[in-house]
Amino acid sequence: GEMTNNDLALKAHLLRRAGFGASRFELEQISDKSYEEIVEDLVHPERFEEIDEDYLKRYNPELSYHDGHPIHAGRWIWRMINTKRPLEEKMTLFWHHVFATAHYKGDHTPSTIGQIETFRENGLTNIKQILLDLAKDPHMNYWLDNCENHSDQPNENWGRELLELFSMGVGNYSEDDVKQAARAFTGWTFEQPLPLYPYGHYESKFVFNESDHDNSEKTFLGRKGNFNGE
Questions:
Q1: Residue 230 falls within a domain, yes or no?
Q2: What InterPro entries does its record include (predicted)?
Q3: Which of the pair, 161 or 7, is modelled with greater confidence?
Q4: Is-contact 45 85, C-beta < 8 A?
Q5: pLDDT score recorded for residue 3
Q6: What are the beta bridge partners of residue 189?
């Protein structure tokens, strides 16, 4: 049916918030859908075809290599503009903002890309799943030094950020809880990727190093147990 100006404004607002905006043409294409139907489409990205990147790769062969960080940033912007799954891409950007990391520390493009792809896959699930995936993410692992978190020498950086910034917030846990959280994540590290030369970076992946994990009892948030990160 014909869209009233009010309908149009409301749908345009929704797509600015839950995506990256829509052109007049795109709004007219969904004019026969109710607001509720559009919301349902947004929260079920699997209803829509995954974006085809062949076109992009044909004109940007450097996307086939793992070293060019800027071209992959451009690729993501291209996805934001062209995706048929706007909320999926918007939530990917949202979580990238919340769980901020930067390329310059690891200087390892596959891990930078991999983290964004993880957010794309889990961004509409639940916070427990997202945090668990993040704890196993090589880019975050290196960014917050969990690879330096050993049973005989804990590093509290990831445990602290997890409680303070990523989940509970200041005032809801004790300093001792931070120490116990750090112990629970000892041995959570990643496979060292092969060196850059001569063929470019290889991918890294999560590794649980059992011999480096603190298996002793921990008291966390008032509960005792042999806790690990999960």
A1: no
A2: DUF1800
A3: 161
A4: yes
A5: 59
A6: 207
